[in-house]
Amino acid sequence: MTLSMFKETDQIKANNSLNEYDLNMMQGATAMLQGDFKIAAQHYRNIANALDNLQSLKNERETLDQVVEAYKQIRHQGQKI
Prior knowledge:
Layout: H1 11-33, H2 37-80
Helix pairs in contact: 1-2
């Protein structure tokens, strides 16, 4: 996965969320294999939270890109007048 899908200022947060995802995925799988389903479930909830955070950061980047594009179009139309 490339961090460029996130705003430059959010890339450290995104990387931290990815690391959290990886750690919880490994720990969740280990707990499940050991039959500790309660602990596994908590790790998988942590994974869902990390993914929610990543989606929020991605949405912020997409919104910013849309605003920048709209601004460019407005500016370009203003130069035609």
